[in-house]
Amino acid sequence: MDDKPLYIPILLGTARQGRQSEHVAAFVLSEMKKRPEIQTELIDVRTLKMRLDDAGEEMKDASYAEKMTRADGLVIVTPEYNHGYPGLLKHALDMCLEEYIHKTVAICGVSAGPFGGSRVIEQMVQVVRELGLAVTFTDLNFSRVRDAFDEQGSLKDEKYVGRLAKFLNELVWMSRVLRYGREKIPPL
Fold this sequence. Notes:
Blueprint: E1 6-7, E2 10-12, H1 21-33, E3 38-39, E4 42-44, H2 62-70, E5 73-79, H3 87-93, E6 103-110, H4 118-130, E7 133-135, E8 140-142, H5 145-148, H6 159-184
Parallel strand pairs: 1-3, 2-4, 2-5, 5-6, 6-7, 6-8
């Protein structure tokens, strides 16, 4: 396999004020940038040009679609709101389809409570599979997120460093395998 870096952006899936998941996304981004095998950037749903009065191709943000076309994988950082995912995240994901097919996605759940977004991850798996993404087996759950970061967004709980490394190792492996398949093996 080639050594060309994988392009794996992070999609921050909430636009709420005071969002704690922003600290998580910044932490994931900083750790991904330390890996020479990954090129990454943060895509914030707040910055996407999403039309809310249309559907299909007419609502597509061209810049986001280009990034998803180029991507080898995707990390979704999403809070759990009332056992589910934010509506703007779903809307953002729905802007593309063929751009996602046979690419890897890893999901990071964020929660103020004890379950670390496990319910939002369960729901997201159904959505991203329908979009053609291949989900990693390793999720990353941030329980009691306010205890994991200080008010400036600095990590307080070092256990997440090792968990994130495992999460990223699987994401990189799957993204390499699927990129090889997309480039070398014609579809049936």
